[in-house]
TrEMBL record:
Region (Disordered): 1-31, 323-359
EC number in record: 3.4.19.12
Pfam families reported in the protein's UniProt record: MINDY_DUB
Protein name, entry field: Ubiquitin carboxyl-terminal hydrolase
Highest taxon in the source lineage: Eukaryota
Coiled coil: none
Enzyme class name: hydrolase
Length: 359
C-alpha cells in the first residue's frame, strides 16, 4: 500500500544546521553538509536564469517553490552563484512572502495578512524537509486545507496532484467519495471491522483503489491535470511525497529536472509528464526533445516507443481540447476519451511489446 501523503523527512536536507561540516568518527572523511544546493544556470525565455538542484530525491517542497519563483524572476541570484544554502533560500522565500502585502490598507485585510504571515512563518521550517499534504481524490487541486497550504496561496503558486478516482468506476467513486487520503485509510480500517457485509465490501474496494494506484497518478488524474492547468502556468506537482515544479507548454505537461546529476547538462531541463507508467522524455529549455547523456544508442528502441506513445498522447490531448472548447461537460468527455485512448494504447502495446530493460 502507498505511503501516506504526509512528509517523510528521511534523507532530506535540513534547516538550521548552518554551513559547518559535521564531524564524523576519528579518521573518517568529513561528511558533506546537505544544507548546500548546487545552482544550475539555464537560458529561460532568452534570459540566463538559475534553478536549484538537489542530490537526493527527497520531498523538499522548498526547492519546488523556489524554482517557480526563480523561473518567474521573482527571486534573483548573483550571476556567478554556484552553491546556495537552505538558509539563503529561506531568506529569499521570506522576502517574497512579505512582498505579497496587500495595497489595500483597510484594517480587515491587513489583519488577515498579518495572520497569514504568522501562520506561514511557523510552516517555513518544514519546507526543507516536507509538508503534511493530504490529497482528496475528487480533483487535481483538492487537498485538505492545512496551514501548509497558505504558503502556496500567498505566493499565488497552484498546488496540483493527479491521484483521482476514475468516474467510470462507480464502485470506487462510491467507496472513496470526497474523503482525503487519511480519511480513506481510516475508513478502510473501520470497514474491515464492520459486521455489515456491504460496508466490508466498500472497504475492500477502497483498499483495492489505493493498492492499484500506488504510483499516486491515475490516467484520469493526468487527463484532468492537463485540462485544468493553464497554458504557460508554473506550479507545484505533488506525487509520492515529492514536490516538483510543473509547467504546461503548448498543451503538454513538463516537470523541471532538478536532479544534480544533470547539473552540467544544459540540454536537459524538463521531463515530460504524459504517462502514468513513468514513460517520459527529457527536453531542453525550449521543450524540444533531448537525449540524456550517453543514452543515444542504448535507448533507441524505447525512444521509438516513447515517440509513438507521445504521438498517441498528443492526438488525445488535441481531441480533449476540442471537446472542451465545444463546452461539453469535462468529466464525461474525459471518460469517453480516456476509454478510446486506453484502447489505442493497448492495441499499440500488443504490436510493440515494451523492450525489457538491461539488468
Amino acid at each position: 500500500s502507498p505511503s501516506p501523503a504526509g512528509a517523510d523527512p528521511g534523507g532530506v536536507p535540513g534547516r538550521g544546521e548552518g554551513v559547518s561540516i559535521p564531524r564524523g568518527p576519528p579518521g573518517a572523511p568529513p561528511a558533506p553538509d546537505r544544507d548546500f544546493y548546487c545552482v544550475k544556470w539555464i537560458r529561460w525565455k532568452g534570459e540566463r536564469t538559475p534553478v536549484v538542484t538537489q542530490s537526493e530525491n527527497g520531498p523538499c517542497p522548498l526547492l519546488a517553490i523556489i524554482n517557480v519563483l526563480l523561473l518567474r524572476w521573482k527571486v534573483k541570484l548573483p550571476p556567478q552563484k554556484e552553491v546556495i544554502t537552505a538558509e539563503e533560500l529561506m531568506a529569499h522565500l521570506g522576502n517574497c512572502i512579505l512582498a505579497t502585502q496587500p495595497r489595500d490598507t483597510s484594517e480587515g485585510l491587513q489583519l488577515n495578512f498579518q495572520q497569514n504571515i504568522s501562520d506561514t512563518m511557523t510552516v517555513l521550517p518544514k519546507l526543507s524537509t516536507g509538508l503534511d499534504v493530504n490529497v482528496r481524490f475528487t480533483g487535481v487541486s483538492d487537498f485538505e486545507y492545512t496551514p501548509e497550504c497558505i504558503v502556496f496561496d500567498l505566493l499565488n503558486i497552484p498546488l496540483y496532484h493527479g491521484w483521482l478516482v476514475d468516474p467510470q468506476s462507480p464502485e470506487q467513486v462510491q467507496a472513496v467519495g470526497k474523503l482525503s487520503y487519511n480519511q480513506l485509510v481510516e475508513k478502510i480500517i473501520t470497514c474491515k471491522q464492520a459486521s455489515d457485509s456491504s460496508l466490508v465490501g466498500e472497504g475492500l474496494v477502497a483498499e483495492q483503489f489505493l493498492e492499484s494506484t500506488a504510483s499516486q497518478l491515475t490516467f484520469h488524474g493526468l487527463c484532468e491535470l492537463t485540462a485544468r492547468a493553464r497554458e504557460g502556468e508554473l506550479g507545484v506537482f505533488f506525487r509520492n511525497n515529492h514536490f516538483s515544479t510543473i509547467i504546461k507548454h503548448k498543451g503538454h505537461l513538463y516537470l523541471l529536472v532538478t536532479d544534480q546529476g544533470f547539473l552540467q547538462e544544459e540540454g536537459v531541463v524538463w521531463e515530460s509528464l504524459h504517462s502514468v507508467d513513468g514513460d517520459s522524455c527529457f527536453c531542453d529549455t525550449d521543450f524540444h526533445l533531448s537525449h540524456a547523456p550517453g543514452t543515444e544508442g542504448a535507448t533507441a528502441a524505447p525512444l521509438d516507443h516513447r515517440l509513438q506513445q507521445r504521438q498517441v498522447d498528443q492526438d488525445y490531448m488535441v481531441a480533449l481540447s476540442l471537446q472542451q472548447q465545444q463546452g461539453q461537460d469535462p468529466p464525461s468527455v474525459l471518460s469517453d476519451l480516456e476509454l478510446a485512448r486506453q484502447l489505442q494504447h493497448e492495441e499499440y502495446q500488443q504490436h510493440h511489446p515494451h523492450p525489457h530493460p538491461a539488468p
